[in-house]
User: Fold these one by one.
Assistant:
Number 1:
Amino acid sequence: MSVGSTACRRAKATLPADTPLSGSHLPALDSAYAIDGAAVADVVIAGMTKDCFMKSMVPVGGVTIGAFALDFGKPVHDQLDEMEKFTGFATHDSLAFEKYDAMETRLQNLVLTTRALSRATSAADGTFTLKFAPVDSVLVVGFADREDEMYYFAHTYIRGRADTSFVLDMSSGGCAQ
């Protein structure tokens, strides 16, 4: 869909008249843009990182969080997919730990360097806030370095069109078991 006379403005910048006003480029537009004079409001996501301790969910501070639109976050999504398909531990591969360590390091680097909608670090009480221009779907990834857990990361997909809240379960459902 494109609208011939609609312009997005930030300072004196405008988009070409044939630019679609929906789709994969939308995450690049932030709340400082106006469409036909109306401000585009940011979506505010209130999150909490939690983990399982003695069958109870407890907050986790110090988790690095990245929120990605699915188009720009494709490298992060692809890395998570590769890690989920990893069979080295099941096949008793003698290099499984080294291979998975390398995959986790790559995931962390991608979370830190891939174009993100928003980034945050969870506070001591596990809370964090993400703020970004509306998008359809958002990949949220969190990781932290823990002495007692080698691979400490979690991810989820959320809707990105309206303010909401969610819990990023760092135990991957461990309390439900």
Note: Residues 43-176 form a domain with the Immunoglobulin-like fold (CATH 2.60.40.10).
Number 2:
Amino acid sequence: MSGRRIKLLNWIVIKPLWLAYLVLALVYFFQSKWFIGVFLLVMNILFLNLSKWLYDIECAAEEDQPRSDNVNSDDLSYEEASVMSKLSMAIAYIIGLTAIILSIHHDIKFYVAITLGVIVAWIGPRVIGRGFLYLLIWVEFRDMDTG
């Protein structure tokens, strides 16, 4: 598994989401919406846990770097696909739960908020997973053009 690809997912996907949730939590704290601020900080901690999980995988991938030459490093391995799948599911569930809580907080009807959260959590992994793949393909082709 390529540690470079995992690092890319961590810095381009998880870190910006972590920063966005932190800023959003601070905005709600300044507006004295304590429940929403604490909720967003808890979601922020979940993003930090995802980042730590990716870092552990990246370190393990760098330790296993000397592999046989018959494996093409440009191909997406089963381990990388599994990591991308789990990561996209976790991100979609966090964003879906956030959509439900923020919708209810902003006086959207309960059944509409639940429907919105379910749609985000159901469609999210497909959209996020494709985004990961397109990002990795773009980076690989960019490296081939410059290298």
Note: The mean pLDDT is 83.
Number 3:
Amino acid sequence: MRRFLFMLILFLAALPWRLDSASTLPLSFRSIVLAADRIFVGRCLETSRELDERGFPSRVVRMQVIEPILGLAPFSVSVGSLLFKEYGNGSFHCDPSVNQLLFLYPESEYGFTSPVGLGQGLLTLVQDDSGERGITSPFPHLAVELGEKNFNEVLALIRRYLSR
């Protein structure tokens, strides 16, 4: 019995104190840019849930690429990812009236990808009354880091990070 209690205490001591299964580390904007292999401004055309050719449950997101920045040419691209399926902040909301700045991970060996950092690599473009485009993020650390930068300033920052 003592041995059992000793092993139980040892086992419990080895467990991490916090078991946050869906926690996400906040990524700096620079880290998001450098982790992406495709960056573009796009608009979601449609999403569908289906099984891919290997039988994996997938959410396929069809995007219209408006402004390619890294790794793409202007055309429509299909992006499928298991991560689009379940995660709250990482869930991809398809709204054809909204332009988004996407930072996508490189495709996995099975052809899946997702926005960098469970949704941190998904920013919304907004336009003020004067026509100037800005960027918004639901992640407070990115909202603070990007501050009041307009789209052209964010684009210059992306290009500076990529050139290093």
Note: The chain has five helices and six strands.
Number 4:
Amino acid sequence: MNSKTLLLVSILVPCVIVGVGLLKPELVLDDDGLSVSVVWSFIGTFISYLGFVFSLFALLEVRSLSNRYFAKRRLPEIKKKLEVIANRMTESGGLELVKIRTERFLGEITVLVKEIRKTKVSDFSPTVKLVIAHHGDLEKSLRDDTSLEKTANDVEAYWSLLRAVTQLADEIDQQHAGDLARL
């Protein structure tokens, strides 16, 4: 359940309770009936609760705005870094896997994936999972001592990772273009 659904439920449940209390007071009160002070007590409690709910809504919206601002500032830089990594991977395609082990971009990919997750843009989740999966596959290939003489061109996991990194950079570019179009 997302936060807006939870907020809606937190508004509707007390509304129903207050409505039942005002329309059928015998269900909520004793046999004394409904007096003016009880009505004002219900109304005051209800308005107080609505104030709490609206404050909660404001908090959620401020958090959402903060996340969008953070993403808008960080994503172009992350995209540039992903493009640099993709270019370095393309240039390193002819290297043997033994030499690929020492390439810095393998660690940089992990760091960038963590940065993308911090932006909390859910649109990237499937591609980020794909990058993580292909990175893991490439790591397995690099640990396999029998295939270290192979070149990166011969390893499917290498090119799958490159495609996923490129796709992630393209998705970030599209997200940023959409954000600019909304302004």
Note: The two ends are 29 Å apart (CA to CA).
